[in-house]
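Ticket opened by: R.M.
Priority: normal
Category: complex prediction / small molecule

The reporter submitted a protein together with arginine and asked that the result be attached to this ticket for the collaborator who will pick it up next week. Submitted input follows.
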Amino acid sequence: MTEHSDYTVSIHYDRRLYRQDIAGSKAHAAMLARQGIITQDDADSIIAGLGQVQDEIEGGQFPWDPSLEDLHMNIERRLTDLIGPAAGRLHTGRSRNDQISLDMRLYTREAIADTISALRGVQRSLVGLAEKHAGVVMPGYTHLQRAQPVLFAHHMLAYFEMLQRDIGRFTDCAARMDVLPLGSGALAGVPYPTDRHAVAEALGFSEISPNSMDAVADRDFIVEYQSAAAITMLHLSRLSEEIVIWSSREFDFVRLADDFTTGSSIMPQKRNPDFAEIARGKTGRVYGSLMAILTVLKGLPLTYNRDLQEDKEGFFDTVDTLLSTLRVFADMLPGMTLNAARVESLAGESYMLATDMADYLVGKGVPFREAHGVMRRLCQHCESAGISLSDLPLSEYREFSPHFAEDVYDITAAASVAARDNPGGTAPNRVADALARAKTILEEAAAT
Ligand code: ARG
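Result attached by the on-call engineer:
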């Protein structure tokens, strides 16, 4: 060991790939024996030895040695201690370059499965909230200004849709990376009669990589996972922001369960939405890791370069951050109580019905632009008079347009919501359809 030798060491983080590395080695050894490249006896002792290595790692007795740099060398050394010279035959027709590419793919495949199931968990919680408060009308916002009434369930299902797209992105990533790189050797292929298809089948890959140089140089799947993760965090961060705003005294729309708030060390009245804030904050590191991997890859000539070792820490951190954030949300959302009385009373606030009143005039034959102008003047008038639209006498309405009649008072938040009765709208029957669709998606996902 020299003064700087720990600079290149990766064992403290790549050891988390031990299961994937061992599974890949077992499949490789079995294939080598079947192809007559090594003897069956050697393969048997390699496979048994690898089993023992795995037990030692899982039992916490494995003698990790940083001077051996990485996971592959640590496992090979231990295998040699356990079974002797036969261990030296495992690396026949293989390089650490195709080996690490395999390990990372196997790891990413599991990470994607875990991520999708965690995303489903958040979707279930969103659907649960939507169902629990199915009829509640709340103010919908644009520019964070009260805009039009919407169903709370519609708002929750908007996030369901975002996460549904996220699942699509992770699913795409899994399909594209479903390719076995092993058999590519260091970069040019291997001079042994290997059976790559058999290894692919043993490890659950649909295809083998068609180009050995690409296979050892490619980390697109890491970039894709991290891109999809960045977008998911973006969505969770927007939801976090809403939760932070909604749980403020100013809004007072929701109350988080005690487990998901913390008090202040000096201000006893406070219930800080720390989990939502931390989720919003952690979005930054996930974006950072995405920028890091893109930057690592951008200048690399073919094929393997040691820079590629820098693909791991940011990626593992992204997987950990995303999974923990999704699991927090799945548990935090069901315990969030909605202040239905407050959101409904705000939704009924008359200015939010100004668009509906313009639509009402349209119904009486007034062109929309003109109706919009009438309502703008009416809102200005009411605001300066300090009264609400619903308290304005009909005679005054009629000064702004002769088309107003007694039925203008029938325009309520409930009527406004019910009027948006087209696909994707917030009318209760449309939202009920959307909820049914969401539940079907979740049931079908659970069944597969
Ligand atoms: N630790 C290396 C990595 O993560 C493994 C592959 C090393 N290959 C090599 N030719 N040095 O990329």
